[in-house]
Amino acid sequence: MMYDLLYPLSSRFGWAGALNVLRYVPFRAIMATITAMLMCFFLAPWFIRELQKKQIGQVIRDDGPQSHHAKAGTPTMGGALILLSVLVPTVLWADVKNSFVVATAAVTAGYGLIGFIDDRLKIQGRNTAGLSGRYKLLGQVLIATGAIYYVFVHQSGMPADWLEIRTRLAIPFVAFSKNSLDLPLWAYVPFAVFVVVGTSNAVNLTDGLDGLAIGPVMINAGTYVVWAYIAGTILFGRPLAQYLDIAGIAAMSELAVFGAAVIGAGIGFLWYNTYPAQVFMGDVGSLSLGGGLGMMAVLTKNEFLSVIVGGIFVVETLSVITQVVSFKLFGKRVFLMAPIHHHFEKKGWPEPRIIVRFWIITVLLALVSLSSLKLR
């Protein structure tokens, strides 16, 4: 909005020349981070009080770690504040005509709505069941399919260079121009939907300890911010993506503003979500943030790389799948409890130790992922 309303003034009025800074993505990304952070900082105390007044508290699993029962009643659905603090700065500082930004924001908002319904049903029913899994998954698939169709199939207004790379899959650490996989559109669309839905649910599974999910979310978002900006940058008249031999077009750079808003909102929320948490994000936060990350992975052509940078989310998901399959087939559990962060709790690890170590691993994975920009 700021970009669309104020930037045109820089060329019309001499006094407005300073507004020319709005053309630069790094400036708008920084402003989005600051705006999101301040929104969370200043709105969170009021938001937490309102949650407490309405008795919107966390429902704890009966079979969960014993230490978690002390958290019962802690305000939840704090993800609604994260969602607001992501979407408002995105609208303010990003190019709202950019199809990538529109699709990513739409998925984030839509998944937030699904998470909100799920959280409300859990609170009203005083149990951890919430929205039926089949309806939750159906909603996620429909929203992701609509967004993917809009960007990948609906060609009106899309740049020609995007049409050349839209269905190609980049292989990490391999030159994109020579070794990418090109899928037919009918196969790529469901694959992209799978990535978005899978990432959303993986983040949701990771959200089980104070600050555990929001840390990797911010690190993943930061990785995509760097990637999106580089993929859309033109340096000395030549696209930087061409020099690095990665998938990239100019429109991708606007996703950096969205990712920066996620980082800012995450930092602001972490102030209140760090151990011991004053508020939990709930499904309204984890599903929406995961959906946004999934869209960033797809739109920056990092579908495969997302498995590396989001390694913690992948491991958490695989631990649940392994536990369920092992128990159904053999009647035995591989882990003391799934997802895997609960396994470490059962082994006696203090909660802060698990959280910080998972963050450290995510930082390492993010650095490995960014190194693939040059190592190819």
Question: Would you write up a description of this structure?
Answer:
The protein is mainly alpha-helical and 376 residues long. It has one domain. The protein is 64% helix and 2% strand. The protein has 16 helices and four strands. The chain has helices at 2-6, 25-53, 79-93, 99-125, 133-153, 160-165, 176-179, 185-206, 214-231, 240-244, 255-273, 282-299, 306-309, 311-330, 340-346, 351-371; strands spanning 168-169, 181-182, 234-235, 238-239. It has a two-stranded antiparallel ribbon with strand order 1-2. A two-stranded antiparallel ribbon has the order 3-4. The longest helix is centred in the N-terminal third of the chain and has 29 residues, at 25-53. The protein is globular and about 60 Å long.
Q: Beta-strand percentage?
A: under 5%
Helix content: 55-70%
Q: Give the tally of structural domains.
A: 1
Taking all Cα atoms into account, the compactness measure Rg is 21 Å
**SSE sequence, one letter per element:** HHHHHHEHEHHEEHHHHHHH
Strand order of the largest sheet: 1-2
Number of helices: 16
N- and C-termini, Cα separation: 38 Å
Structural class: mainly alpha
- Overall shape: it is globular
- Number of DSSP strand runs: 4
Average pLDDT confidence is 90
Q: Outline the biggest β-sheet.
A: 2 strands, antiparallel
Unreliable runs: none
